[in-house]
Write a sequence for this structure.
């Protein structure tokens, strides 16, 4: 070979004139093994961005969605692309390591080939390498960091707080963080984070006078360039999660206030202004068209692993909108050339974290081991073995959701069960043991109570319509960014493009139409009501799994869909 | 960042602690004057925007981009939805806030004295997903703007 692969990669990256990064991405796809992490630095200001790790400290498997439907102007547009349509859009060669990182195609086989992803010890190695080439780079954490694992729940997020400090996170914002309660959030921000990690959120105010709860932004110099990081917490926290955890705080998108913060930061001399956002990608794309003066929105919440930013033009300029996936599987790298007080050029890459290619950082590994030590026996209990791939992510029931629904119906003697359409939760490969730790990955919340309700057919329809509108409303500002409620026992038809209140049709139980006035027993969990009482859902599912011993392959039940045939958001 | 409101909060809390709240009372007098305005029963029991406008002697309302409604897209609590209305229409005399699907549409009406910024803030109850409508009356006619507010069951997020 006349040219080493490394030189080839660098040459390609250098040849990628203009702001488009697709050439560099293709080079990344061509490379493998050791050269996978040759990421030449660019410019004078670098931002590293992670989001939605959901407290996954150790390497895991995570299957990207096979269903992520986009409607109207979002149809076939990022992030509403899956499988082959995704690879084609980003010119990623099928069958490569990169194709595995970004798509669900051939998941279980490719997962065996390329191994686990994420893990803070491996991520720490990547962060250190990137920082070595990018002096002054800031590490931004978009939130959903403190929740999603057993150890985070049991330590009240202390393991994650310590890991963030060790990783060198500079700025963060939040969402699930708030489910530990306002007092715990303040305790961490004013305690271990003080002087180290800035928690920013321009859109959280007190209910009474509308006072700012957190600093709206922070200005940090990078190589002499003042850079403003504005925070945007998840706008619908008190609606999507229990209000009683943050009774005195009000959220919302608040683009007028955001514009004021951007103008203020620019007025104070910020030459690069970015929004560290937990809005979700569709909301961020709309927001970018409405506010002026944001160079980039580094986004999370919707767990979309997007290899390139969406460039949104607005009245005065343009804004790059990114989304950096979930589960510590990716690290976003935005390299900027800021000259004469403004952004001149940039490069962006979303770098997958393959645990096999990045040796564990010993200090971070020791920290993780120390936090896991008291719980090892509990975490490692094998509840059952799965014959099939288990996953959650996607617009409708995943196979792990199906397992939870089946457990709820069996244990509660209910013909119907609902389980929330969360986007977090790791994946398991055929033959893997379902340990308590993996079950907690799907269920670890501060409001896990199992509930049994008597709903009329009409109420069931209202619930399904309500959640469907939160997912498929044509205006992203009216969406909440979760997926459709998982439904067990009953069948239904869904027309995503229909008007609110008219999407759900033909609800049936055991083949018979559901009667609007008849009452049905419906098991569920994670009620947002303050007084919900019941067994934690993981105990119920664990009991069910211990009896099953082996989980047989079973296709998760899906609603019959109308009007989305050929949608690039469907595999 | 020390928002200016903090001092207001401290002032109020100090004022109540030391019984100084009494000193604030005279300031409230001008507002009490509004109570003397006779309540328009027909307007406050009307079912639709056109009936509310009719009850105040107006006619066809024109949609205007000079009226800005600020309200959450999705209500955190339908019982108290914060809403502000700002009118840039010259000679704005009144601002009315309506919730289209409430049993009685009109929630609040503000009379704007001449030379005052036409800006009103209040909290309204929104029973179900509905348009919020702001109606502005001037000497030249009636204008309106609207914004949907969603009231949702909650849960299942992210």
């Amino acid at each position: 070979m006349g040219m080493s692969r490394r030189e080839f990669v660098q040459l390609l990256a250098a040849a990628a004139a203009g702001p488009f990064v697709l050439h560099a991405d293709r080079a990344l796809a061509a490379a493998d093994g050791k050269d996978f992490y040759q990421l030449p630095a660019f410019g004078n200001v670098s931002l590293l961005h992670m989001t939605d790790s959901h407290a996954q400290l150790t390497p895991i498997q995570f299957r990207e969605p096979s269903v992520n439907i986009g409607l109207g102007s979002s149809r076939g547009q990022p992030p509403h692309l899956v499988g082959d349509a995704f690879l084609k859009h980003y010119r990623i060669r099928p069958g490569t390591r990169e194709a595995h990182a970004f798509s669900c195609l051939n998941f279980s086989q490719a997962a065996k080939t390329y191994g686990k992803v994420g893990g803070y010890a491996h991520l720490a190695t990547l962060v250190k390498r990137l920082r070595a080439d990018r002096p002054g780079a800031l590490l931004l954490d978009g939130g959903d960091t403190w929740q999603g694992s057993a150890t985070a729940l049991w330590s009240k997020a202390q393991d994650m707080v310590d890991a963030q400090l060790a990783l060198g996170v500079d700025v963060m914002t939040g969402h699930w963080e708030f489910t530990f309660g306002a007092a715990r959030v303040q305790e961490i921000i004013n305690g271990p984070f003080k002087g180290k990690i800035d928690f920013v959120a321009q859109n959280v105010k007190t209910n009474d006078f509308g006072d700012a709860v957190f600093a709206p932004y922070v200005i940090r110099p990078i190589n002499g360039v003042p850079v403003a990081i504005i925070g945007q917490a998840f706008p619908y926290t008190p609606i999507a999660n229990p209000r009683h955890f943050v009774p005195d705080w009000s959220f919302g998108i608040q683009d007028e206030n955001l514009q004021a913060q951007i103008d203020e930061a620019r007025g104070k001399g910020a030459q690069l202004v970015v929004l560290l956002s937990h809005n979700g990608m569709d909301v961020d794309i709309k927001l970018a068209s409405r506010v002026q003066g944001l160079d980039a929105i580094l986004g999370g919440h919707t767990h979309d692993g997007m290899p390139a930013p969406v460039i949104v033009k607005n009245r005065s300029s343009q804004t790059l909108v990114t989304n950096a996936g979930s589960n510590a599987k990716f690290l976003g790298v935005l390299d900027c050339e800021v000259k004469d007080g403004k952004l001149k050029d940039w490069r962006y890459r979303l770098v997958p974290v393959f645990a096999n290619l990045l040796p564990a950082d010993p200090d971070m590994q020791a920290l993780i081991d120390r936090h896991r030590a008291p719980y090892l026996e509990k975490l490692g209990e094998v509840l059952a073995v799965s014959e099939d791939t288990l996953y959650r992510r996607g617009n409708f029931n995943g196979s792990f959701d199906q397992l939870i629904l089946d457990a709820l119906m069996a244990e509660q003697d209910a013909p119907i069960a609902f389980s929330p359409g969360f986007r977090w939760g790791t994946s398991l490969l055929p033959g893997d043991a379902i340990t308590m730790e993996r079950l907690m990955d799907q269920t670890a919340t501060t409001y896990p109570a199992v509930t049994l309700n008597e709903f009329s057919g009409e109420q069931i329809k209202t619930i399904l319509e309500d959640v469907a509108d939160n997912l498929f409303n044509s205006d992203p500002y009216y969406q909440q960014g979760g997926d459709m409620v998982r439904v067990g026992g009953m069948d239904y038809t869904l027309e995503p493009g229909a008007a609110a209140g008219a999407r759900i049709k033909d609800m049936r139980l055991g083949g018979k139409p559901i009667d609007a006035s008849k009452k049905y027993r419906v098991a569920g969990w994670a009620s947002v009501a303050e007084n919900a009482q019941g067994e934690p859902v993981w105990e119920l599912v664990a009991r069910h799994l211990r009896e099953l011993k082996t989980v047989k392959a079973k296709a998760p039940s899906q609603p019959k869909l109308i009007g989305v045939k050929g949608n690039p958001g469907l595999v | 960042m020390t928002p200016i409101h903090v001092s207001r909060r401290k002032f109020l809390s100090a004022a109540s602690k030391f019984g100084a709240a009494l000193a604030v009372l005279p300031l409230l007098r001008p507002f009490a004057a509004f109570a003397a305005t006779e309540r328009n029963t027909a307007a406050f029991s009307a079912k639709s925007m056109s009936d509310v406008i009719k009850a105040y002697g107006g006619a066809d309302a024109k949609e205007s981009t000079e009226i800005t409604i600020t309200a959450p897209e999705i209500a955190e609590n339908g019982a108290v939805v914060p809403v502000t209305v700002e009118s840039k229409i010259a000679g704005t005399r009144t601002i009315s806030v309506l919730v289209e699907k409430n049993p009685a549409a009109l929630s609040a009406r503000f009379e704007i004295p001449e030379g005052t910024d036409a800006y009103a803030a209040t909290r309204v109850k929104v029973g179900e997903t509905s348009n919020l409508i702001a109606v502005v009356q001037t000497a030249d006619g009636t204008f309106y703007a609207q914004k949907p507010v969603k009231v949702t069951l909650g849960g299942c997020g992210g």
